[in-house]
Amino acid sequence: MPTKMLQIPTTDGQADAFAAFPDRGERHPGVLMYADGFGIRPVLKEMARELAGHGYYVLVPNFFYRHGPAPVIELPEHIGEEVRPAVFAQLMPLIEAHTTGRVLSDADAYLRFLTTQPEVSAGPVAVTGYCIGGLLAMRTAAAHPGQVAAVAGFHGPVSADGPESLSKLTAQVHLGHAEGDMTPEALGELNQALDAAGVGYTSEIYPGTVHGFTMSDTDAFNPAALQLHWDRLLPLLGRTLANG
After folding, report:
1. Start and end of every Dienelactone hydrolase domain (predicted)?
2. At what angle do helices 132-143 and 100-115 cross, to 10 degrees?
């Protein structure tokens, strides 16, 4: 599986990024993958390679590039509960500095870059994200109706922008929520808002999960939920992207 580190030109500089894509000399649909708050690291590269193996060009940008290349902060090999508070104390100022204006400006740059790569086929793209990346994915899809055909967010604060933001979505949506993040009542309210916005979607709580369940380098990891995430994501991409 070919992979490469890239530099994406943005209005504020250069965002470093990881890309994975099939080694078949063909062009493939593009997928923009937003990491969780811990950023690009071995587990994210592994997930990008896994997705690329199904026939996609997967681009994972370092959305904290204004603060330095990934990893922006030093991360332990396993992000256990005993180190998590200290790690988040370093990350929260970066997350707070990543304003909606920055998110949307960067999303323009990421999609422009993705769609002009020689390995990427013409046509719509998909966006997926984890944790804070789920929110970035939803903002990106809402800002690029028509270009983004599918969006997926996992254990992300996807309703943070309120129901009015959903009305701009034209993409097909899948949201996989952690049981520890979302009550059934809150899920019902979110799904009602998606219905009211006329969005085509699936949105569900993954059973027995806590925030971060897809990430194998954390204590939150749930192997069954990670598999469910693939079982939801791959058919969504298959339905919405013209995969060679």
Report:
1. 16-239
2. 70
The residues of the chain scoring below 70 in pLDDT are 243-244
State the Cα–Cα distance between residues 139 and 115, nearest whole angstrom: 18
The model carries a pTM of: 0.97
* Nearest Cα residue to 223 out of 206, 235, 202: 206
Q: CATH number, domain at 195?
A: 3.40.50.1820
The alpha-helical segments, DSSP class H, found in the chain are: 42-52, 84-97, 100-115, 132-143, 184-196, 223-240
Number of domains in the chain: 1
HSE at residue 194, side-chain half, CA atoms within 13 A, is 21
- Tell me what pLDDT residue 134 has: 98
Closest CA relative to residue 160, chosen from 217, 117, 103: 103
The per-residue pLDDT for 1 is 86
Domain span holding position 204: 3-242
CB 225 within 8 A of CB 209: yes
* Close Cβ partners of 190 (under 8 Å, ≥ 6 residues apart): 158, 159, 175, 182, 203
